[in-house]
Design goal:
Helix content: 40-55%
Distance between the termini: 80 Å
CATH architecture of the largest domain: 3-Layer(aba) Sandwich
Order of helices and strands: HHHEHEHEHHEHHEHEHHEHHHHHHHHH
Radius of gyration: 31 Å
Strand order of the largest sheet: 2-3-4-1-5
């Protein structure tokens, strides 16, 4: 298997026909834009790379964890430059155990000749446990310095044996001013698109579009320059940028943690009574192709967990919305979901039903309340009646308000109170009613 990209800092080069994002990759830590917490003078990466170069030794293996376009690949290449290591790259989506073993075998040979190898694995979270285990010996023996890139939480997606041999460094989405600096560099560099002018409105639009993703910004800039060049102009206008970008592709992978982050923010906005926030996250899920049934299910849960008895209509509305969405489908389903989301967000909130069942479950799991009171037991069969089952049961309909004074809880739980009504919305009425009922029952 041939080694990828380059075998020394001096011999590395990127073709002029390569995409702008590849041409503008930094060569040193000082050239990296953003991630100052990792690349500054006393930062972990700088200390690690300097120590490795000074001691002519392998670096500690690293897992870069962060959103797309934050510089994970660039940092891996920079580390190879700064430590004079061979850079070998694999993608977890296109490589298997065979490719990993081949890369490690080549690295082992270099190690024997006194040269280290940085093995960069993009999207390492997509490797199976077996594929990840294949890396262990190479890392343990020092044949490779593993640099993995992932958008998924390493504690979940990387096995513990591999994590124990690496440090995890978090990367952050770039700030607007950092994206602006990258754009300015591309416009001023011979490696970039030197000679083009970028209208300020177009630049602002590109920065908003990028969402902190450097690659997205540079891809958009290159596309816009091609459009303006196509009309024989070196001035990139807002229309050029809008045509290039068309519609923002939201970072939202239904198999990724971002999916759960957006869903979590959606529910928390409903819980917090912020209709605008809930609608924003609803729009993100809709625009990203989320299954409307998933959204509707989350709303049904919220209607019971967060609104509950403060407005019992909420559960009916959420359930009706789910049924309507299943009948109608996109795009009209967006209106149904919007109506239901606004209602849920503005409804009074009570989690008493959620707390009540969890409290009851906790007692059951602790082994409490095993004996059903005899008067509540089934006495319909002669054998059970002979044991006293059902004897003494007071039929509620024989009493005023259909409430009879008797114990319903097992004896060891007769002092336990699970339902604690809250005084919001409709539940304030239930709170008064429950208090009056308890006075008769107990």
């Amino acid at each position: 298997m041939p080694d990828s990209l380059f075998d020394s800092p001096e011999s590395s080069s990127v073709s002029k026909s390569a995409p702008l994002a590849a041409r503008m990759r930094p060569k040193t830590l000082s050239e990296v834009v953003g991630q100052d917490h990792l690349t500054g003078e006393s930062s972990p990466l700088r200390r690690i790379s300097q120590a490795a170069k000074a001691n002519n030794s392998s670096m500690t293996s690293i897992i870069f964890y962060g959103p797309p376009g934050t510089g994970k690949t660039s940092l891996a290449q920079v580390l190879a430059h700064e430590t004079d290591a061979w850079f070998s790259e694999l993608s977890a989506t296109a490589s298997g155990v065979k490719e990993v073993r081949a890369a490690i075998d080549l690295a082992k040979g270099r190690f024997a000749r006194g040269r280290g190898t940085i093995l960069f694995i993009d999207e390492i979270h997509r490797f199976s446990k077996t594929q990840q285990d294949t890396l262990l010996q190479g890392v343990e023996e020092g044949w490779i310095t593993l640099v993995g890139a992932t958008t998924e939480n390493p504690s979940v997606s990387i096995n513990s044996a591999l994590l124990s041999r690496a440090i995890v460094l978090n990367l952050k989405s770039l700030q607007d001013e950092e994206i602006s600096e990258l754009i300015d560099r591309a416009l001023a560099s011979e490696k970039g698109i030197l000679g083009f002018d970028l209208n300020q409105a177009a630049k602002d639009h590109l920065i908003r579009f990028s969402g902190g993703d450097a690659r997205k910004a540079l891809v958009g800039l290159e596309a816009a320059s091609a459009i303006s060049g196509g009309r024989n102009s070196k001035s990139i206008e807002l229309n050029d940028m809008q045509d290039a970008l068309q519609r923002s592709a939201l970072r939202y992978d239904k198999s990724s943690s971002v999916h759960y982050d957006v869903a979590s923010a959606f529910i928390k906005s409903i819980r917090g009574s912020d209709a605008d926030g809930a609608l924003h996250y609803l729009a993100r899920m809709i625009e990203s192709g989320e299954d409307p049934k998933f959204i509707a299910r989350r709303m049904i849960i919220s209607a019971s967990e967060d609104i509950g008895l403060a407005d019992s209509r909420a559960l009916t509305i959420a359930t009706s919305a789910a049924q309507a969405v299943a009948l109608v489908g996109w795009p009209e389903a967006r209106i149904i979901l919007s109506q239901a989301v606004i209602y849920l967000a503005l409804a009074p909130k009570s989690n008493s039903a959620y707390l009540a069942i969890d409290a009851a479950l906790a007692d059951v799991r602790d082994g409490l309340g095993q004996l059903v009171p005899p008067h509540l037991q089934d006495g319909s069969l002669p054998a059970s009646k002979a044991t006293g089952a059902g004897i003494g049961y007071r039929y509620p309909h024989d009493f005023p308000q259909a409430i009879a004074q008797q114990e319903y809880l097992p004896l060891d739980l007769n002092q336990h109170e699970y339902y604690q009504p809250q005084s919001r919305g409709d539940e304030s009425r239930l709170a008064d009613l429950w208090e009056r009922i308890k006075q008769v029952l107990r």
